[in-house]
Design goal:
Structural class: alpha+beta
Number of helices: 3
Strand order of the largest sheet: 1-2-3-4
Helix content: 40-55%
Number of strands: 4
Strand content: 5-15%
Shape: elongated
Length: about 130
């Protein structure tokens, strides 16, 4: 096995755009890598890896755009009703007790607490 010298390949905007154009036309990735490596006078492997990376970024971008379009349609079609919040405060000698909607601590705790008490220097959650 020969020790091959690793070379750094610089991908300019022009080169990345060539890769994107080749991917959009539907040419197989290996053929695209071989043709671009001959044109740029570099090895095939780094170009092939870059093609995979650019393809995954393009795929993620398309998926993000599709998701935004779907959400936009839902927002336009949806009927929104504003929900009244029910937060009850009762003040004790020990602290202020919260109940109602205030018990929903979003994505912070594994389960919803039954009682939250605010003290001057800390907060207590009761399950």
């Amino acid at each position: 096995m020969k020790n091959q010298k690793k070379t750094y390949v610089e991908y300019t905007n022009r080169r990345v755009n060539q890769i994107k154009k080749g991917l959009r036309t539907g040419t197989p990735r290996l053929e695209l890598a071989r043709s671009l490596s001959k044109e740029w006078d570099v090895r095939v492997n780094p170009v092939y890896q870059k093609i995979h990376k650019v393809a995954s970024e393009m795929k993620a971008y398309k998926a993000k755009q599709k998701l935004e379009r779907e959400n936009r349609k839902k927002i336009v079609k949806g009927n929104f009703v504003r929900k009244e919040s029910t937060i009850n405060l009762t003040e004790n000698t020990k602290g202020i007790e919260l109940s109602g909607d205030a018990l929903r601590v979003y994505n912070k705790l594994k389960k919803e607490p039954s009682k939250i008490v605010l003290h001057e220097d800390h907060v207590r959650y009761y399950f």
